[in-house]
Amino acid sequence: MTYRATLHIHPQGQRAIQVATAEVEFLNQVMQIYNLTTPDGQIFEGPLEADEVGRMLYSAFLVILENGRVYRVAPREMSDRWYVSKVKP
Fold first, then answer.
1. What is the pLDDT of residues 12-21, one digit of tens each?
2. Rounded CA gap, 6 and 23, in Å?
3. pTM of the predicted model as reported, rounded to 2 decimal places
C-alpha cells in the first residue's frame, strides 16, 4: 500500500518545517520513499531508504502519513545507520 506523506525537519525548540512531499511504502516493515519532491521542484524518484534521506537532509526528520501516522527518522550514536521509529500510531 502506498501512502502520501510530508517530510519535516524538527529543530530542537522550534516548530517542524516541511521540507518535502513523498510517497511511502513499507516493504517487509522497511520504509521505502518514492517521488520525493522538494519545495523548489527537485524530484528524487527512488526508491530511497530513510537513512539515505536523512543523510541528504543532514538532520533527523518526521514522516507524517496521510492517515495521521507519524514516524521519526534519526541517527543512532556509534552507528552509520538511521533508524525509523513510530511516534504516533
1. 778 889 999 9
2. 9
3. 0.86
